[in-house]
Amino acid sequence: MVLLSSSPKRPTLPDYFHDWALVDVETSGLRPGRDRVLSLAILTLDAHGNQTGEFSTLLNPGCDPGPVHIHGLTPDRLAGAPTFEEVAPQVGALLSSRVLVAHNAQFDYDFLAHEFAHVRSWVPVSRRLCTLALNRLVGPAVPDLKLGTLAAHYGVRQEKAHDAQDDVRVLSGILRGTLGAAEQLGLALPLLECPPRQDYKPYVPKTPCAYRNPGRLTPDGPLVQGMKVAITGETKVSREELVACSVAAGLNMMTSVSARTSVVVTNDPRSASTKLRRAADAGVPLVDEPTYLRLLESMRPGQAKDTARQRRATQTPANAHTHTANIAPSASAAGIPPQRPATPATSTVTADRSLAGRRVLVLGGTHDEAAEARARAVALGASAAVNLSARVSDVVVLPSGETDRRMSRITALGLNVHHADWLLAPTPAPAPNAAGNQPDTADVLVRGAVIDLSDTGMAWTVAATWRQQTVCDVDIVAFAIDEREQVPGDEDFVFYSAPEHPDGTVRLAMDGPTEQAVTADLERLPLEIHRVVIAAAIDGAATFSDVGAVEITATCGIGAAPTARATLDAATTERTMVLAELYRRGESWRLRAVGQGYDHGLADLARSYGVDIAE
């Protein structure tokens, strides 16, 4: 493992020279579009790292400030502060023509985008850089990647955590140090394109329905809370009012029609709308607006969706034991092999652990040869890297690997370089410069391995990373599925165009061009959700032979050290791959590394889980 210098160093690579706008926000909650910014700080740097501007302010959000015990921003402190509308021109000028930088940048960017949308404008940022994602690539010798830990590593004094002005000052020191470490490794910066959009509108999350879907509306039958309802065509009552009344009554209002739709409301059943065509194909009943309004007046109560957190809150010691039966996950409708019995991850590894604690990068070879080498390294107790980082201890060079552009960096760093036959009888040399390195405590999982997830009350994140030189686009998606191995509704498919479940329990984040993550609040998921399946799909005609391996890590909390990691290879012809799944086991949750690939595309994978995909 390589211990890189933590002293700030001016970068020399051309791609590292940008004008930067370092940003930190303190907010009333965690959901952009619903919660508001309470405090904002911006610090601007030129391409050489010199400070060129600074701005900070409290903001009056016009709402409850949320967790005061964390940020200390009481209503009294915020009462005299300006609104975002008052400072928006100044904020926009500081952000314009600069790369936005933040620690967990999607969070800060999304909040700023929605604040600008509230004032009928757009955030003037075309690219952003996440220092959390950059440090995941660098792999510094630290126990975790939280702001305070990185500040200590890069020699930056932190005075007051969760204070936007101090946090952005600390961030400037972390950025300088991280750029120097990244340049030593020859890493491309994980800059994400996010062009300004004049048509950006405030995100209004769909109100989640609190009731289970009871099925179809029967002829002359009552509406029941939880029914899925779609509306098409002109209505006498405004569409907004009709939807609001329906949601208030406990119905699940849908924007599309599928086989699980309970009823479609239309005043013109002979029109050629897409919704009516799908309703006819699926046999979904139709009602006109007057009938629907009459049925709304006599709504029948539905069955509430419970979550594990709600269930425990209502249990008494006398009946708590009745909910501890094991629920074994069943075989997937997508063709995934049946689950193996849940076993500790260590039981799937061979007795030879001669490479335990090592991190091995494989260069060159065919796709199959490289996959075999990575599998062998993992079987010997190592973790398999997909990019060069400060934690890589050994490099295995297969045929043509000597021409890899990273070899010059590997030589300069003094890493242990081996031929392929080293993996047959490895004799690990001391890791270079390893004295200051923190050991990686994450469980290394092979395909099919399972670990228990601790119940901390925090959301779990499964992040996927692939080779930086990948030329094709890879999309990470998630399916929240029930006991039938189907999504209860199309909203349970989380992907790039719908990156958040309506109730916020499953979210997709893009942290860099070659890294995406799915975060699941397992305790808040409805009990009807038995599994969250996380998959990768390649856009276009490329296959996983063009991408190579995908590494996944499971963490609990922003910047926390990984609990588990796995490096998964699909076959050469496959275009989608199920990476991992989070599944219920009694009252707890488990993670399984899957690594099952398919030749078909994302649309076919989504249909296999019951998502209604238009042709």
Characterization of the model:
By secondary structure, the chain is α/β, with parallel strands linked by helices. The chain has 4 domains: 14-193, Nucleotidyltransferase, domain 5 (2-Layer Sandwich); 228-296, Rossmann fold (3-Layer(aba) Sandwich); 350-424, BRCT domain (Rossmann fold, 3-Layer(aba) Sandwich); 446-608, Lipoxygenase-1 (Sandwich). The chain is 22% helix and 23% strand. The chain has 15 helices and 26 strands. The strands form 5 sheets. The protein has a 6-stranded mixed β-sheet with strand order 3-2-1-4-5-6, sandwiched between helices. A 6-stranded mixed β-sheet has the order 15-24-23-17-21-20. A 6-stranded antiparallel β-sheet has the order 16-26-25-22-18-19. α4 links the parallel β4 (99-102) and β5. The longest helix has 22 residues, at 164-185. It is globular, with a radius of gyration of 26 Å. The two termini are 50 Å apart. Residues 1-10, 198-203 and 316-350 have low confidence and may be disordered.
Average pLDDT metric: 87
Taken together, the total number of domains comes to: 4
Strand order of the largest sheet: 3-2-1-4-5-6
Low-confidence stretches: 1-10, 198-203, 316-350
Radius of gyration: 26 Å
Largest sheet: 6 strands, mixed
Strand content: 15-25%
Provide the helix percentage.
10-25%
Backbone structural class: alpha/beta
CATH topology type of the largest domain: Nucleotidyltransferase, domain 5
Give a quick set of tags describing it.
alpha/beta, Rossmann fold, 6-stranded mixed beta sheet, 4 domains
